[in-house]
Amino acid sequence: MTPDLFAALMVFAIVASFTPGPNNTMLMASGANFGLVRSAPHMLGVVVGFAVLLLSIGLGLGSLFAAWPALQGVLQVGGALYLLYLAWKIATAKGVGGGGSGARPQTFRQALAFQWINPKAWMIGVSAFATYAPKTGYVPAVLVIVAVFAAVNVPCALTWTGFGVGLRRFLDRPAVLRAFNITMAALLIASLYPLAAEWMA
After folding, report:
1. H helices of 57-173, where?
2. How far is CA 165 from the centre of its chain?
3. Cβ–Cβ under 8 Å, residues 161 and 22
4. Which DSSP category does 116 fall into?
5. Could you read off the pLDDT of 111-156 as tens digits, one per residue?
6. Domain regions of the chain by residue span
7. What is the pLDDT of residues 15-74, one digit of tens each?
8. Contact (Cβ atoms closer than 8 angstroms) between residue 119 and residue 76
9. What is the pTM of this model?
10. Contact indicator for 153, 47 with CB cutoff of 8 Å
11. Sign of the alpha-carbon dihedral angle for 103, 107, 113, 115
């Protein structure tokens, strides 16, 4: 991978990772509702899960969906339904810290598994390899792409969760917290717009 291509990859990774999407929205909501420490498994699951997904796409999983487009459709529908479920869970969360409501942050395994049905994660992964993985030295390029995104996703996860933590002091009133959670749920649903536009095209 040439220095120019690597620099372009870095810019793409930063922009793609830090822009709003399902992961970032959920991390912000988790930080606001549960704090940084309790959200740590969620953050780690996002970072590790996305790296595993990228590696799988780069080493051939992307070609599987190209060969059988119906599989991609099933994945998209399943992902959309699960995102709607998560939006409902966020919208109905009660109380900062989840005390007495039975609410809890996502676990490491849940966040890791979510990457496989996250529409934005798939779009980023496919785009990254189509654009930044040269045919010569492809496997080393795959490892570089995975490493770059992993390095970028650590501060990204911390930043978005930190935004939520920073808002906790403003969310001590139930009405304000409910408005925040409903807004986060609406943003999560809005993240499905590119997928919906593709279906309607």
Report:
1. 62-67, 69-91, 108-114, 119-132, 138-167
2. 18
3. no
4. G
5. 999 998 888 888 888 888 888 888 788 889 999 999 999 999 999 9
6. 3-200
7. 889 988 889 999 998 998 899 999 999 999 999 999 999 999 888 866 666 666 666 667
8. yes
9. 0.79
10. yes
11. positive
